[in-house]
Amino acid sequence: MEDFQKFYWYKTELVQICKDNQLPSYGTKAELNQYIIQYLSGIPQSQIKTGGLILTFHH
């Protein structure tokens, strides 16, 4: 994880890392970084969630 945090990553690179590891691959650059850091800390992919809004539509 320290190696990951030492480098500057472009957003496109972060998106690809997230996709390669079945993590959420959208959001701000800070959010993408957080998903990867959580993953590298040992948190299972299934527990890494986006912080965005969930929209529901009623018919």
Automatic annotation (TrEMBL):
Pfam families: SAP_new25. This is SAP domain-containing protein. It comes from Companilactobacillus paralimentarius DSM 13238 = JCM 10415. The lineage of its organism: Bacteria, Bacillati, Bacillota, Bacilli, Lactobacillales.
